Amino acid sequence: MALRNVVDYHAGETRLGLTSRLAMANGFPSMRDFVAITGTSPHAINVGEPAAVAMLSQWSEFDAPLLSSWAIGTLERGATWRLGSALMSRDMRPGYTHRYCPKCVVGDLANGTGPTHLRPFMRVWWTTRAILNCPEHGCPIKEAKTDVHHAGDFALFIAKHLPQIEAEARDARMSPSFEVDKYVAARLQDIPASTFLDSLETYVAVDLCRNLGRFQQANSIGGELPAVALTDIERGYAIASQGPSRIETVVADVIGLRKPSAGEFQSVFGSLREWLLRNYKREEFEGVVKLFQDFAERYLPIGLAETFVLPTSRRFLHSVRSASFEYNMMEDRVYNLVVQAGLVEPSELTSGRIYFDADRGHEVLTAALETLTTSEIATIFGTDIDTVRSMLDANLMPRVEAFGNSRVYSRVRKQDVDAFLERLTVDIARDNELARLDDLANACRVARCKKYEIFELALNGELPSLRRSPESGLLCCYLVDPTELRAGIEAKRRRTAKEKRHDKTSTLFAGNQLLYWTEVSRRLRASGITGLTLLKLGFLQGVDAVCPRTWLRKKYVTLKSLEKFERTHVSLWSLAAQRGISPRKLRRELDAKGIRPIFDQTVTASRPSLFYRRKDVRDFLQ
């Protein structure tokens, strides 16, 4: 039956709070004294046992279904408990404390009806530590310790501590942010607030926000910190409430900033990963665990042998270090391969911090494994390693790896070697051709070239005489016409020299402005050794240059110095021809007058032609 004195019921009021006010309204010293004579218990009323709720309904004259809201139930041996439809963790239990918002209490006193000491009522959301701030006022929830005999007797607590609570209300300050508290209050009232977080159990959503906030805080740099100092849980809520895509962005940004190696990601994820590891076997954590496992697999270089929370299902990324182990390659070789393939930019990071796409990297690294060394190629060709290296330097076959900043790994894909041999396929020499053909070694001596140059001409279609030996199909046993080879080599070198003359950074090639000393002798109509003698004695200016025909470095005479010499000197033979006498007779006349040539023929055993200064023989010139 109804009690003599009843009180108003407020939406969101706890059953124990209502019972406490009823006990005080009817003159009982405490709620426990009142309940002791009813045949029920505070615990039964608190958790919402049907018999206890029915009894409370009779006392208060409120319907039992109304009072049955937010039933409390313990699950999993006390690890979790339910507050209405919201699942809470053990550490969210209020314990033997009175939790309250002082501003709410003062507001009830000012705005409520009935006796003043019965106006404040106990809100359901105060009974879980998932809420740390008042969802209405934003000030921190106060906690006052009590004991088992007075737990839940809120009306008695207010009556004894009202001055203290009024002082707390005056001093209360609003927290910078209390979005999580408003969110949990909405969850308790079954009001949708965040699609993603609403898909999780309440305590999982709250713990996710807290650990996600710690994760971002621990991995933030100064410029990323917000202007308002948020708590970890509020920072995490600002991220998680936007859904999985926003969480992924934060995780990806942190990994991109820190670039942890496979053995360092534990410290980067810190308490977030530890929280997942503690709870991954729980059914309510399945979605969150799979979410972060997916992020870890797609943004960290972890493989099937490594575990983030669950066993890795697929490798998405490799680091240079992990690829080195998996493909049995040196780290610097792996690095150079992936840089050359455009999978990563050149980096100063350590090998464990340089990531690249595992699938694309597999193509590059597998291709690098399916290669031949210079020694293996030399065996296939039947030639020496130096010849193979010169062929690679000439790009007759592409290297898989060719780097300028470290050791050159001279490896060639087998398919490129096969393609080279296929392009170089020639006929077997016929009997009537053997007389004019010679082996490559002798032909190289005649043409003054290297073997790779023979293959280069052949691939360009400039060596029709190239044949295979009837006795062997090895590359080293090919035959060629030395005369044709020499002509082809000289033509090729002239083309190259002509191209490089316009390149100021290239080797100097002899051209129209440079003459070899034999050409100087012919131009001066002098004996063969004269040009060299004039060059050695310094009458002509010499420069080192490469012969465009033989590519041998030689001393050449500049055309400018030769023209100057011709203007200021005249040969004995030319002067005698002008006077119509023999050179010998003319020399005796010049000697008789004390006129000497610029050098004496004794300077060399080959007797160069004699020259005089034009100013000395002006009287003898016609």
Sum this structure up briefly:
The protein is mainly alpha-helical and 622 residues long. The chain starts with 14 loop residues before the first helix and ends in a 9-residue tail after the last strand.
The total count of strands amounts to 16
Sheet with the most strands, sense and barrel status: 3 strands, antiparallel
Uncertain segments are 502-507
What is the tally of helical segments? 28
- Please, what is the average pLDDT? 88
Radius of gyration of CA atoms, rounded to a whole number? 50 Å
Question: Strand order across the biggest sheet?
Answer: 1-2-3
Number of domains: 5
Protein name: TniQ domain-containing protein
InterPro entries: TniQ
Pfam families: TniQ
Domain TniQ: 8-140
Write structural notes for this entry.
- With 622 residues, the chain is mainly α.
- It folds into 5 domains: 15-184, no CATH class; 194-315, no CATH class; 431-499, no CATH class; 514-567, no CATH class; 570-620, no CATH class.
- It is 46% helix and 9% strand.
- It contains 28 helices and 16 strands.
- Strands 1-2-3 form a 3-stranded antiparallel beta sheet.
- α10 runs antiparallel to α13 and α18 (374-381) packs across α19 (385-393).
- The termini are far apart.
Keywords, separated by commas or semicolons:
28 helices; 16 strands; 5 domains; 622 residues; 3-stranded antiparallel beta sheet; mainly alpha
List the helices and strands and how they pair.
Blueprint: H1 15-25, H2 31-36, H3 42-47, H4 50-60, H5 64-67, E1 72-75, E2 80-83, E3 86-89, E4 97-100, H6 102-111, E5 142-145, H7 154-171, H8 179-188, H9 195-198, H10 202-218, H11 232-240, H12 244-258, H13 265-279, H14 286-299, E6 317-319, H15 320-327, H16 331-340, E7 355-357, H17 358-369, E8 371-373, H18 374-381, H19 385-393, E9 411-413, H20 414-423, E10 438-439, H21 440-447, H22 451-459, E11 479-480, H23 482-500, E12 514-515, H24 517-524, H25 530-536, E13 542-546, E14 553-558, H26 559-568, E15 569-571, H27 572-579, H28 583-592, E16 611-613
Antiparallel strand pairs: 1-2, 2-3, 4-5, 6-7, 8-9, 10-11, 12-14, 13-14, 15-16
